[in-house]
Amino acid sequence: MHDRDFFKQPFSEAELRALLAETAPADAFAWNSPRARAANLARQDPPPDDEIIRLMLETPYLIRRPVIRIGGRTLFGFNQREVESLLG
């Protein structure tokens, strides 16, 4: 198990894109974050993927947490059923 505080040690663009390989950037974006709301960002009218990635790199608070990597899969946000299926 490896822990990383990506607020102190931010993801590079290459790392974030690798984590997003099987996930649409909009699904990893923290739409309910106060920062997203303050920027008038809404899931119903999302910016293009590259813009979402740029925003997440600039403001890591916009990445859904936790980020869980199990095997080759990455989950953004906690979903007990998905975690259990990957573990077992």
How are the SSEs ordered, and which strands pair?
Layout: H1 13-19, H2 25-28, H3 34-38, H4 49-58, E1 67-70, E2 73-76, H5 80-87
Antiparallel strand pairs: 1-2
What's the gist of this structure?
With 88 residues, the protein is mainly α. Helices cover 39% and strands 9% of the residues.
Task: List the defining traits of the structure above.
2 strands; 88 residues; single chain; mainly alpha
Summarize the main sheet.
2 strands, antiparallel
Strand order of the largest sheet: 1-2
Strand tally, please?
A: 2
Radius of gyration: 13 Å
User: What is the number of helices?
Assistant: 5
> Which structural class do the helices and strands define?
mainly alpha
How would you sum up this structure, described in words?
The chain is mainly α and 88 residues long. The protein is 39% helix and 9% strand. It has five helices and two strands, in the order H-H-H-H-E-E-H. The chain has helices at residues 13-19, 25-28, 34-38, 49-58, 80-87, and strands at 67-70, 73-76. Strands 1-2 form a two-stranded antiparallel sheet. The longest helix has 10 residues, at 49-58. The two termini are 16 Å apart. The model has no long low-confidence stretch (mean pLDDT 93).
